[in-house]
Every structure is written in structure tokens, then in C-alpha cells.
Amino acid sequence: MSAHDILTTSSNKTITAQSLTEFCDDYLSATAFKDYAPNGLQIDGGRPIERIVTGVTACDALIDAAIADNADAIMVHHGYFWKGEPAPLTGMKGQRIRKLMQHGISLIGYHLPLDAHPVIGNNATLAAALDMTIIGALYPAETHPVGNIAICTAQNAQSLIAQITQALARIPLHIAAEYNVDTNTSNRLIERVGICTGGAQDMIEQAALMGCDAFISGEISERTTHIARELGIDYFACGHHATERGGIEALGRIIAQQFDLPVTFIDIDNPA
Q1: In percent, how much of the chain has pLDDT > 70?
Q2: 252, CA 20 to 30 Å: which among 25, 78, 126, 219?
Q3: Confidence (pTM)
Q4: Pick from 138, 80, 78, 83: nearest CA to 114
Q5: d(CA 161, CA 142)
């Protein structure tokens, strides 16, 4: 645990897990998304919610931190019950859910709705942190785009690396569009940027198609290097976890303000 940021002070107010989920469903337009996991209430802890912990992923370490914080609910970007995973509650999955139930902690998760929200979403908060302005969708036909196009002050890759490093507290992996075998650097200016946080490295081709100078995401695959060089687009792999802290932390602030409840963002360190 590398950060423990209490957003509000203690309160005697409570809310049910269902009411909290209804508010978030509406705020995030959750029903508009066809997702890889259920959005909303995933585990009902069975008790009123007075304290909430937020985090990126509902790992065992986050559950332990929530227990130590006397939380009644955990809200995350990466929850449980993903498509294609085994259904039985055994092994690591069973241990996590058993611990939540034993301590009466509800789990609420939002995946694509938290990527796409135009104000507090992962793309939106990352763009804001990098002094970029979102101007449209990476896929123009999408009503609720999960990838965006942003503009920034024209700058070279080294300048953008410095901005990303300051905003995310980690140095991104940069693949230069104009490959130099000696330096892997370029003096070309970057002004139009595709953004999709997390594991969206394969959207780089769409970013190039949309005329972006660069594409920012979380992860990188072996093929991404060749695609960036051959399509002439700079790529910045900034970390799946690092690029997706902003949305859930911002949602926690909204909930704290809306319901006057203590919300604690807990950052479980993850270099990936």
C-alpha cells in the first residue's frame, strides 16, 4: 500500500449497497455498456455502508486494507466474475469472496463505464493530468467512447515523457515513430494524441488511422513496437494500473460529496 488518502471525515450517515449502486449506475450510464464483467454490486455484504474504500483492483491486499480501515464497502475498477473465467468459488477467487462475506463488506465494480465517463473517467482524468483537452472519440461511431482523441501544446516525446512521469510517478516506455537504432528518440512534434487507458495497446492502429501523432495506453505487446514504427506513431506504455487510478479515485470523491460518507482511496502498488 503506497497511498492512503482519506477524502472525508467520519460521519454517522449510512447508505445501502443497493442505493449506492443505483446512484453510480446512473452517474456512469452503466447500462449503456456491453462489458466483460458485471458492473455495479458484485458482492452484497449485507450491512449498511458507513465507510468506503476505493482502489483499482479488488485484490487480497486491498481487501485486507479495507478490513483494517473498518470499511463496509469496496469500490474498484477491476472487480470479479470476468467472462470466460471458471465459475466455482475455489482457490484464490473463493478466498477473496469468503473474506468479503465474513467481514460483511460489499464489493462494487465499474469497468468500461469508468473508462469512458467524460468527466471522471480514466481517459478524462489522465488527459487532464497531462494538460490535454479531449476533442472526440477514437471510434467516432461510439456513443460512449472508451477511447478518446486529445490535443495538447505541441511538444516532442521527451517533453511528454516528463509530463507523464510527473503525473503518474513512473517513467513510461516510449516507442518512437521515427526509429533511430542508436537513440530510439525523435524530434517530431506531438500535438494530437489518442488515449485509452489499461490494456488497449491494440487501439494504436485506430489512433494512427485517426491522424494521431501519438497513442497513450497502459500496456505494450511485442507487436506494438513494430506497429508504432511502421505506422509512424509514437507509443507510450504508461502502466495499466497507473493509468487507471484516476477514475476510481475521482468516483470516490463524487460519492463522498454526494452522501457525506468517509471514502478512502488505497493504492496497492503495481508496476504493471
Answers
A1: 93
A2: 219
A3: 0.93
A4: 78
A5: 29
Residue 221 — pLDDT band, cuts 50, 70, 90? very high
CA distances to 76, 95, 201 from 245, in Å? 10, 25, 18
Cell of 97: 469472496
- With beta carbons less than 8 A apart as the criterion, state whether 194 and 215 touch: yes
Specify the pairing of strand 148-155 against strand 133-137: antiparallel
How many C-beta atoms surround the C-beta of residue 151 within 10 A?
17
Work out the average pLDDT over 202-228: 98
- Give the chain's length: 272
Residue 102 CB neighbour total at 10 angstroms:
10
Taking residues 42-59, report their average pLDDT.
Answer: 98
pLDDT at 236 over 70: yes
Q: What SS3 class is residue 86?
A: coil
Compute the Cα dihedral for 39, 66, 248, 206 and give only its sign. Answer: negative
Q: Which residue has the higher pLDDT, 114 or 183?
A: 114
Q: Which of 23, 35, 21 is nearest to 84 (CA)?
A: 35
For residues 232 and 177, the answer to whether their CB atoms sit within 8 Å is yes
Spatial separation of the C-alpha atoms in residues 169 and 38, rounded to whole Å: 31
